C-alpha cells in the first residue's frame, strides 16, 4: 500500500514546464540526405570504429582499465572528427574489475576442462581451490535455511539445473512486415508495485547469498549459464565500493554444470578445481559518460541527443552489445561533422557508462541535466536496488535544463539495420517520424510503431517526461546468442546494416535538430493511480 | 586412368556365393512386440547406459584410457544381462591419447582466454609456448611454398579465416512427412576416381604440413573451428604408431581465431600462449570391437547383426555421437535377452572402435569375417588413406563366413527417434521392411526410403555386398551443434526417443532373425565401368 498512499500525497505537486506542442513536419532538408548517404557508404568508417572497440579494446566493463581506454579513445576520435564540446561527465559508480586468467576443471571422477567465467566483481581465488561440489539451489532468502550446516568445504552449485534445450527457431533472422505490424500497439501502463518489490528482493539476494556461503564455510560457488551450447556471461552486480562479495564465484556453461549436477546425484560428488586471477581497480570510483556536440545556431532552441552505451559485460568483446550502437552513434557524428552542418538545435552525442549495471550512466545524465526524483533527504540505494527503485520515487523535480532536451534517440539492439522507430506510446510523434523516415523506405527503415520499449538508456528519460525513443532493428542473432555472451565478437556484426544505421540516424538527427518545433512531449509523469482494484498488494 | 584399367582386369573375377533371394515377409511374431514395448518403456535402462558412457566415462577416443574402460564396462554389462559369446576382437590401430589439461590465451594486445582444444594425437607443448601468430592459410601441398622462410618462431594459423555465420535454420528439428518423402529416391552410383584421389591428397596433407612447419622452425599451429559459437572439435588423424605429428596443434574457436586474424592484419601480430598437457598411451596398439550374442536355434541359418560405434571424438562426452547409438544397441540386446528369445538366426551385437578415424572397427570386422579386397601383396596404407583407398582395391575376396551375415543394422545419427529405414538402393528389401515396421506407425517409425547413406559402419559391409542398413532418425540438433563438438553431452539426449529406438530395433532384429529367408542381397560389387565419358580423369 505504501506506494499508493505516497501517490495520493504527491498528486498535483509535479511541475509541468512544457505543454504538449502541435506536430511539426517542417524543415526537412532533402539535399542533406544524399550527402549523408554518400559519406556513410563511400567513406564509411563505422566498421573500423566498431572493430577498434571490439577487437583492440575488447570487453568494456564499467570502470575497468579497458573502459578507461575506451573513454579516452572515443573522445579523441570525436575531437579528430571536429566534434565540439567533447568531454566526459563523471558519476559515482564503484570498482573497476578485470580478468587476467581463469580456469575451471573437473578432476574426479575424470579429468575435463569446464567452460566457465568468473562472476563480474567476484574476488580472486588466490591460487587454486579444489573441492567437491554440492548442488544447493538457492535463488531467494527462503532457500537458504535448508542448506545450513551442509556447505562447509564445498563448491556450491547454486542454480537448479534444468534439462537441455530444443532450439526450434532460427538463431539469425530479420523482421518481415508481419513481425513489425505486431509491434504497432498502444499498451496501457500497468500498476504493479509487487513486481517492483519482487525485483528489489532479487537485487538484494546476491549479498545475502554471499554472506550465507561465507558463514557456512563454503569455498566458492557457481551458477549455471542461462544459455545452452557453451555460451557464458559472467554477469554480477556487486560493483559498489565497499559492497564486494567475499566468495569467489563462477558461471559454468550449462552442459558442464548439468554434468556436475548429474554426477553428484548418482555417485560421489565430483571434485572441481577453480582458479581465477582477477583484479579490482579502485583508481577512480567514478564512471564517465562521453559527450560530444555539433553546436546549434539558435542558443535558445535546446538540443537533440543520440546515445548508446559504451560499456559492456566481460565475457565477449562487447561488439553487438553495444560496440555496434556506439559505432553507429559515432559514425553519425562523424558524417554530420564532416558535412559541416549547422543545425538550429545543438546535436549532442552521448556514450553511456554503467548501462549494464542498471542504466546508471543515462540515469546520472538525467539527474545531472534533467530531473531528480523523490525526497532528497532519503538516501538512494546503490547498484540494482537503485535501478529498480528509482521510478518508484516521487515526486519528480525538474532541473533548469529540463526543457532543453527536445528528443533523445537510443541505439542498443545489436548490429541489425534500423527498420524505423518505436513511438513509445507517444502517438503525437507518429506523423512526424513517418515524414522524417520517408526517404529510407527503400532501405527498409520507414516503420513507425507505437510500442513502448525498455531495458536501455532511454528509459529514465521517459521516466521524467522527456521524449526518448529507440530504433526498431533487425534482430539478427543478437538475442539468440550474442547478448552478454562470450561470442559477442566483431565477426558477428553486419557491415551493411551498420552503414545503413549510421545514415538513417544522421538524417533523423538533422531533421530533429532543424524542425521548427520540438517533438510533442508526454505529460510530466505523476504517481500512477491503480486502475484495477485487484492490482492492490495483498499484504502491507 | 589407373583405376579403370585395373577394373578391366578384375571384371568377372569376383565370387558370388549367394544369389539374390525372393522377398520374405514371414515369421513376424506379433506377440513379441508388446513384450518388447513393455520392457523398453516400463523397465528401460537405455538412459542409464547412455549416462554412464557419457558422464562417467566421457569422451572415448579409440585406444584412450577412457575407451579401454568403455570396452570393459560394455562387456560386463552384456554379461550381466545374459548375452552370450561376449568378447572383444582386436585389430591394429595405433596410439592412445588423452588430454590432462590445456589452455590458450592471447596476451597482447590485451589479455583474453581463448576457447581451444589440442588437436587429437598432437604432442604436448612441454610447458607453455608464447609467440606471435602469423596467418598462413595452407590446405594443400601447393600452398606451402609461399610461406617458406616466414614461419620461424611463430604460432601458425593455417586455416583461412571466414566471416561469421548467419544461422537461419532452427538448430533442433524433427522430420515431417515431406522431409522423409525426399529421401525416397534411387540414386545411380557415380564413377569419380578423381574424387577419391582428392580425398587421398587431403588425407596425406597433415603429415606434409607437420614436416613443413617443423622444417621452417614454427613453434605450433592452430586451425579454426568449422562451426561458430565457441563450438570446437579437435579432430586429428595422425594416430598410427610411428606416424605422430611433431608440432603441437590446437583448434581454436571461430570467434577467437578470427579475432587473432583480424588483429594480425591491422597491427602487430597478437601474442598467444599455448599449453597442452596431453599424453600418449602405447600400452596396446590394438583397438577392439565388442561383440555379444543371442544364440540362434539353427546353426546353419547364419546371423543378423546390429552395431554402433563405441568410440568418440574427444571434445565432448561422445553422448549423441555415439553413446546414444551404443546405448540403443545395448538396450535392444538387454530387452531381447531379458525376454529369453531363441530366434532362428543368431543376433549379434557389435560396438565398433575406430569409427571416427575411418570406420576402422567395422572395416576390421569385414576383413576378419566377411571379405578382403585387392592384391594381398600390395600393402595397405594406414589411417585416413586406408579409409579412402579401401573401396578402390579390387577384386573382392570373400571369406568362408561371408554368407553367414544375413543383414546388418547400424545406428549412428544421434539420439533422435527412429523414423524407419534407408533401403540403401536395395529395392528388394522395401516390402519386407515395411512389413516389419508396420507395428510402429504410431511411433512414427514405419518409413522405408530408397536412399543410400554413408559415413558410418554399414559402408564397408555394403562395399562387399552384405545387406547393411541405417535407420532414419529425427535429426534434432545432432548435425547443427552436437556432432563431434564440445557440447555433445548427455543433457542433449532425448530419453523418449532413445526408448523408442531401442524398442523398434529389438523388434526389427527379432523379425530379421526369425525370417524364413535371409534378406535379398545386392550382387557382389565388381569394379565399376564409367557410365559417363566425361567422368574420365583428365590426366594420368
From TrEMBL, chains A, B:
Stretches of the chain forming a coiled coil according to its record: none
GO molecular function: carboxypeptidase activity; metal ion binding; metallodipeptidase activity
Biased composition (Pro residues): 520-531
InterPro entries tied to this protein: CPQ, Peptidase_M28
Superkingdom assignment: Bacteria
UniProt key word Cell inner membrane: no
Residue span of region Disordered: 517-540
Position of the signal peptide: 1-22
Matches recorded under Pfam families: Peptidase_M28
Localization per Swiss-Prot or TrEMBL: Endoplasmic reticulum; Golgi apparatus; Lysosome; Secreted
Keyword entries, A-Z: Carboxypeptidase, Endoplasmic reticulum, Glycoprotein, Golgi apparatus, Hydrolase, Lysosome, Metal-binding, Metalloprotease, Protease, Secreted, Signal, Zinc, Zymogen
One annotated GO biological process: proteolysis
Domain called Peptidase M28: residue spans: 289-500
PANTHER family: CARBOXYPEPTIDASE Q, PROTEASE FAMILY M28 PLASMA GLUTAMATE CARBOXYPEPTIDASE-RELATED
Protein name (record): Carboxypeptidase Q
Organism name: Hephaestia caeni
Amino acid at each position: 500500500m505504501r506506494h499508493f498512499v505516497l501517490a495520493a500525497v504527491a498528486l498535483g505537486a509535479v511541475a509541468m514546464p512544457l505543454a504538449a506542442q502541435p506536430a511539426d513536419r517542417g524543415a526537412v532538408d532533402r539535399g542533406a540526405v544524399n550527402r549523408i548517404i554518400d559519406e556513410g557508404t563511400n567513406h564509411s568508417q563505422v566498421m573500423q570504429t566498431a572493430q577498434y572497440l571490439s577487437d583492440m579494446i575488447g570487453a568494456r566493463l564499467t570502470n575497468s582499465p579497458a573502459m578507461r581506454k575506451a573513454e579516452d579513445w572515443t573522445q579523441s576520435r570525436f575531437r579528430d572528427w571536429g566534434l565540439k564540446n567533447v568531454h566526459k561527465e563523471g558519476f559515482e559508480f564503484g570498482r573497476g574489475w578485470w580478468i587476467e586468467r581463469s580456469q575451471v576443471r573437473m578432476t574426479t571422477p575424470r579429468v575435463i576442462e569446464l567452460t566457465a567465467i568468473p562472476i563480474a566483481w567476484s574476488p580472486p581465488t588466490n591460487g587454486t581451490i579444489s573441492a567437491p561440489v554440492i548442488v544447493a539451489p538457492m535463488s531467494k532468502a527462503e532457500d537458504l535455511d535448508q542448506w545450513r550446516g551442509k556447505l562447509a568445504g564445498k563448491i556450491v552449485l547454486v542454480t537448479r539445473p534444468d534439462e537441455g534445450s530444443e532450439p526450434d527457431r532460427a538463431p539469425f533472422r530479420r523482421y518481415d512486415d508481419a513481425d513489425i505490424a505486431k509491434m504497432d500497439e498502444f499498451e496501457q501502463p500497468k500498476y504493479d508495485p509487487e513486481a517492483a518489490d519482487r525485483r528489489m528482493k532479487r537485487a538484494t539476494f546476491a549479498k545475502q547469498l554471499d554472506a550465507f556461503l561465507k558463514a557456512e564455510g563454503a569455498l566458492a560457488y557457481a551458477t549455471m549459464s542461462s544459455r545452452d551450447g557453451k555460451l557464458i556471461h559472467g554477469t554480477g552486480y556487486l560493483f559498489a565500493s565497499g559492497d564486494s562479495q567475499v566468495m569467489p564465484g563462477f558461471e559454468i556453461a550449462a552442459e558442464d554444470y548439468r554434468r556436475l549436477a548429474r554426477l553428484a546425484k548418482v555417485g560421489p560428488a565430483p571434485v572441481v578445481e577453480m582458479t581465477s586471477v582477477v583484479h579490482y581497480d579502485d583508481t577512480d570510483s567514478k564512471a564517465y559518460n562521453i559527450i560530444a556536440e555539433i553546436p546549434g545556431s539558435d542558443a535558445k532552441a535546446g538540443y537533440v541527443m543520440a546515445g548508446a552505451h559504451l560499456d559492456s559485460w566481460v565475457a565477449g568483446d562487447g561488439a553487438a552489445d553495444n560496440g555496434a550502437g556506439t559505432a553507429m552513434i559515432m559514425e553519425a557524428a562523424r558524417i554530420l561533422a564532416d558535412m559541416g552542418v549547422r543545425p538550429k538545435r545543438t546535436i549532442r552525442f552521448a556514450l553511456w557508462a554503467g548501462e549494464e549495471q542498471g542504466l546508471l550512466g543515462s540515469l546520472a545524465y538525467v539527474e545531472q541535466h534533467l530531473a531528480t526524483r523523490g525526497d532528497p533527504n532519503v538516501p538512494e540505494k546503490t547498484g540494482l536496488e537503485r535501478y529498480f527503485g528509482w521510478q518508484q520515487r516521487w515526486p519528480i523535480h525538474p532541473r533548469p535544463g529540463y526543457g532543453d532536451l527536445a528528443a533523445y534517440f537510443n541505439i542498443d539492439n545489436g548490429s541489425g539495420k534500423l527498420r524505423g522507430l518505436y513511438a513509445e506510446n507517444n502517438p503525437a510523434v507518429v506523423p512526424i517520424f513517418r515524414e522524417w523516415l520517408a526517404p529510407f523506405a527503400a532501405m527498409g527503415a520507414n516503420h513507425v510503431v507505437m510500442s513502448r520499449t525498455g531495458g536501455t538508456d532511454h528509459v529514465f528519460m521517459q521516466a521524467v517526461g522527456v521524449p526518448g525513443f529507440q530504433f526498431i532493428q533487425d534482430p539478427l542473432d543478437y538475442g539468440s546468442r550474442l547478448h552478454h555472451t562470450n561470442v559477442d565478437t566483431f565477426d558477428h556484426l553486419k557491415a551493411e546494416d551498420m552503414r545503413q544505421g549510421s545514415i538513417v540516424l544522421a538524417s533523423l538527427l538533422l531533421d530533429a535538430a532543424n524542425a521548427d518545433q520540438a517533438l510533442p512531449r508526454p505529460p510530466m509523469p505523476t504517481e500512477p493511480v491503480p486502475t484495477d482494484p485487484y492490482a492492490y498488494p495483498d499484504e502491507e
